């Protein structure tokens, strides 16, 4: 597939890039500073400018964004604003398939009673800014009219790609509290050709 990738310099984005290239996909990585990335097709553009990124989306099969805030405990709108720009650029070019990385922490569907009553309320207070941004980003995606998939991992680690994670549609993985960035990337690539993941939230965890 022809993939446009945003957030390729981050931990998850780099895993998506490496795994997609290894699988034979054609990937255009759109970044602010191409010097930070070594890959066959790296281009510089401001993700917040739909006109600037539209040429790198036009003609692609899917857009993947792994953009995330660097500090979740500070006010931020980077995921919401960048996703709004990407959605606008996709509408301009007619590309419909969008996969975004969010987080399972801000939702409780599928969680056990202890997680719902104790763990999540504590985390919600600590990570209120980052999770608010993700919630607004998800609203942008679900209202876009595109063929979207929202990937919701829990705590991310730098562990290896195993492919042995659990997966739930529309609800969290019960008892799942972490997953490697490499397995998040694996899930994104598996979702490319999965019709069951279209217009669905996909929670993943070990």
What descriptors fit this protein?
206 residues, alpha/beta, Rossmann fold, eight-stranded mixed beta sheet, two-stranded parallel sheet
Explain what this protein looks like in three dimensions.
This protein has 206 residues and is an alpha/beta fold. The chain contains six helices and ten strands; from the N terminus they run E-H-E-E-H-E-H-E-H-H-E-E-E-E-H-E. The chain has helices at 11-22, 50-57, 78-93, 113-126, 128-142, 181-191; strands at 2-6, 26-31, 42-44, 62-65, 97-101, 147-152, 155-157, 166-169, 178-180, 200-205. The strands form two sheets. The chain has an eight-stranded mixed β-sheet, sandwiched between helices. The chain has a two-stranded parallel sheet with strand order 7-9. Helix 1 packs across helix 6 and helix 3 (78-93) runs parallel beside helix 5. The mean pLDDT is 94.
CATH topology: Rossmann fold
> Which blocks of ≥5 consecutive residues have pLDDT under 50?
none
- What Rg is obtained from the alpha carbons, in whole angstroms? 16 Å
Termini gap: 27 Å
Q: Supply the number of structural domains.
A: 1
- Name the quaternary structure: single chain
Q: Which structural class best describes the helix and strand composition? A: alpha/beta
Overall pLDDT score: 94
Q: Can you name the CATH architecture? A: 3-Layer(aba) Sandwich
CATH class category label? Alpha Beta
**What is the beta-strand fraction?**
15-25%
CATH homologous superfamily designation: NAD(P)-binding Rossmann-like Domain
- Number of DSSP strand runs: 10
**Main sheet attributes: strand count, strand direction, barrel closure:** 8 strands, mixed
Task: Using the alpha-carbon principal axes, give the shape.
Answer: globular
Helix content: 25-40%
- Strands of the widest sheet, in order across it, are 3-2-1-4-5-6-10-8
